[in-house]
Amino acid sequence: MLKLKIEDVADEVRSAHYLKAPPIDVVKLATDEGIVLAPSSDYGPEFNGRIEFRRDKQKFILFFPTQHDGTLTRRHRFSVGHELAHYYIEGHRDALIQGTAHNSTPGFICNEAFEREADEFAASLMIPRDFIERRLGRRNFMDLKTVLALADECQTSSQCAAIRYATFTGEACSVVLSSQGKIYFNVVSDESRECGFSYISSIPVTAMVGAAAREPQTILERSCDASEWFGERRSDPRAHEESYGLGYGDLVLTLISLEIATDE
Predict the structure, then answer these.
(1) Which residue spans of the chain are classified as CATH 3.30.450?
(2) Does the pTM of the predicted model rise above 0.85?
């Protein structure tokens, strides 16, 4: 399904439930749809969420993790949004009704089409496009600290906020999620793509990524040549690299902002 179509579905869901501004109450949304909730703090650290259709009850059941006190972290909330995608997106819903169900892998770390579409829906649901566009305003630019603050404000995952920023900003930047040298995603802004900086094949040995994994919840930053991330080029602008260890799975979120001169 096209990203724009997924965005439209998320907009329609919020509109139907009169949900205007973040944070979006995804649990209430599921309840209002008549979905049976099965939260628990005992599912284990590897479990992120699952939605099933029970034919005997003609009901959807949503399983999702919580903390021991029953509250949800920002990651948990994103996972619920991800499961709701399988309920709202037509092809996903049809598969559930036919009996297909599996433990989901949200967080933009799975390349399976349904899982990526569910991540896109959750991001669109929890950080609406009109909201992020207003937040960017004329300034367009956010540093990683501001992106993380956006995640806090919208009560969603850091990956979600970073991807929404890269999707809507007018600045040349790239967002990378990696773990132990493996790149899970590389999302570039339109401006970066237009300037020819659209593909990152590997994590540079000079990057702050490894140190950020060892010092989670801390932003590490440096200035570097864009070629360190994007390969040798004739014209090589400077770049500002910010890396942040998420604190689980050695995952590191990196924002690379390119210092590209613009004609006044």
Answers:
(1) 143-258
(2) yes
Q: At 18, list the tokens.
A: 């009169």
What is the architecture of the domain spanning 143-258? Answer: 2-Layer Sandwich (3.30)
CA atoms within 13 A on the CB side of 195: 24
Residues 67, 95: Cα–Cα separation, whole Å: 30
Question: For residue range 61-99, what is the model confidence (pLDDT) as tens digits?
Answer: 999 999 999 999 999 999 999 999 999 999 999 999 998
CA distances from 196 to 41, 176, 193 (A): 46, 17, 5
Look-up of token digits 């009850």: 57
How far is it, in rounded angstroms, from Cα 144 to Cα 238? 17
